[in-house]
Structure to design on (304 residues):
């Protein structure tokens, strides 16, 4: 039996913009998906998806998941039948890198079961292949976080650079409970960008400037400023129409309860919101407020 894991992630700045080569900042979170893989008789694969999940998530993603596993197997040159078990403490939902975490976990577990010694870079490439089934044209940011962990500056086609703020900081992620289709969200941006090219060029320019500012203040641990920039980033994401009323509501709840900043995170149109909440006390306050509204809240830290 081979085993492997992949981390969940949070995008702090510039999801969607990152697909067009604009820098983004993201972090792995301390929750992961674990895969176990065993050779079996027959063809294809047998999957036991035992991950905890937002209701409807697994059903909604079943077809993409099937294509994703086939892509990973093909990229790794595996023709044997494999049986896969998925579990771990990352609750499967939109916006938290659940698909990428499972892709990295499966690729690692296959490598382990077949005694193939692949580097992390190669595992990351296999996970990227798998991600194509979920994203269409992924930037690679999710699988990079899932494979390598840590807080990263990421540029599509150039890869990642690790960022180390002076100390770790608490965040809260709030799940709208709405399962979203990342492929559709990415395609929507592409269509609108073609239609409103001039306006979108301005927004994209602003997003690029913001990434560089965010990098500086993050490296200084200036959380007030980081929060302010997250709010600005959320506005840009609203402008390109990837937020949703549920996400905007969670942003409002977080801000009313003292978060330094809050924004949608990941593909949007549902899925997760992230709030910057330095200190255990503020983190708890914001998480409880989200729970009181009936949403799931994930408490974690970045920059560990
Ligand atoms: C999804 O987590 C992030 C997006 O920017 C897509 C991608 O980068 O592949 C929306």
């Amino acid at each position: 039996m081979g085993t492997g894991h992949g981390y969940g992630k949070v995008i702090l700045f510039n999801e969607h913009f990152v697909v067009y080569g604009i820098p983004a900042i993201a972090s792995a979170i301390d929750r992961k998906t674990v895969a176990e893989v065993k050779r079996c008789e027959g063809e294809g694969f047998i999957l036991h998806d035992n991950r905890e999940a937002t209701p409807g998530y697994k059903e909604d993603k079943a077809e993409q998941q099937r294509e994703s596993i086939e892509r990973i197997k093909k990229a790794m040159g595996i023709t044997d039948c494999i049986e896969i078990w998925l579990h771990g403490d990352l609750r499967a939902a939109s916006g938290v890198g659940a698909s990428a975490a499972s892709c990295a976990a499966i690729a690692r577990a296959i490598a382990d079961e077949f005694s193939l010694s692949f580097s992390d870079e190669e595992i990351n490439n296999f996970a990227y292949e798998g991600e194509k089934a979920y994203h269409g044209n992924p930037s690679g940011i999710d699988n990079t976080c899932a494979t390598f962990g840590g807080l990263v500056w990421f540029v599509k086609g150039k890869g990642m650079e690790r960022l180390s703020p002076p100390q770790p900081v608490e965040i809260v992620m709030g799940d709208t409970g709405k399962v979203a289709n990342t492929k559709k969200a990415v395609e929507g941006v592409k269509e609108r960008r073609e239609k409103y090219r001039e306006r979108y060029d301005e927004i994209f320019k602003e997003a690029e400037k913001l990434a560089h500012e965010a990098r500086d203040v993050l490296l200084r641990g200036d959380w007030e400023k980081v929060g302010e920039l997250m709010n600005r980033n959320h506005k840009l994401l609203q402008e390109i129409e990837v937020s949703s009323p549920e996400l905007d509501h969670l942003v409002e709840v977080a801000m009313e309860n003292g978060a330094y900043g809050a924004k949608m995170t990941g593909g949007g149109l549902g899925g997760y919101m992230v709030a910057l909440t330095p200190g255990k006390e503020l983190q708890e306050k914001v998480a409880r407020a989200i729970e009181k509204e009936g949403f799931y809240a994930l408490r974690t830290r970045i920059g560990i």
User: Anything to note?
Assistant: Residues 11, 15-16, 18-19, 135, 138-139, 141-142, 182, 186, 266-267 surround (R)-mevalonate (CB under 6 Å). The domain at 2-163 is CATH 3.30.230.10 (Ribosomal Protein S5; domain 2). The longest strand covers residues 24-40. The first helix runs from residue 57 to 76.
